[in-house]
Amino acid sequence: MADEFDVDGIDADAGETGLDMSAEPMPQVSILTQYVKDLSFENPNAPGSLQSTEQPRIEINVAVNAKRGGDNVYEVELKINARAMAGDSLAFSIDLLYAGLFGLANVPEEALEPFLIIEAPRIIFPFARRIIADSVRDGGFPPLMLDPIDFASLYMAQQQSGAGNQVGNA
């Protein structure tokens, strides 16, 4: 009777709870590590750009890429580019490629891509956001505080346009 035990009248194999403990194992996700792959900050018109009183126009682009890194290991890259223009002059430019390694086990195939393109970037985004803010501040400008990104909406829009992300093999 090694497989069954009774705790306060609840049979752990299924019994009264209706739980089937012999079903598929639960999905498991772990963040193995996070890291900066590439970071570039440019302030080409300093010190003049630092003395400007004009409010800069800021353009931000975000991209997500995911690829298999080994057995049950996936690398998710979050690429953020920001450009600040004061008039016709570049105030600053920052490019960050931030990545995370995720260990995934027992994740159904149909849930793999949505996790890697929606949930994984949502997990690592706050860390990338801080790096952007600190780098811009260290470059002499007020910190650039990026608004939260709705990765689910971006994914859905990309799926509807037919340009869905593919999870590649390394």
Automatic annotation (TrEMBL):
Name a GO CC annotation attached to this entry.
cytoplasm
The biological process GO terms on file are: protein folding; protein tetramerization; protein transport
**InterPro entries in the cross-refs:** SecB (IPR003708), SecB-like_sf (IPR035958)
List localization entries: Cytoplasm
Query: In which domain of life is the source organism classified?
Result: Bacteria
Q: Which N-terminal stretch is annotated as signal sequence?
A: none
Picking any one GO molecular function of the record gives:
unfolded protein binding
Keyword Chaperone in record: yes
Q: How does it assemble?
A: Homotetramer, a dimer of dimers. One homotetramer interacts with 1 SecA dimer.
The name on file for this protein is Protein-export protein SecB
* Gene designation: secB
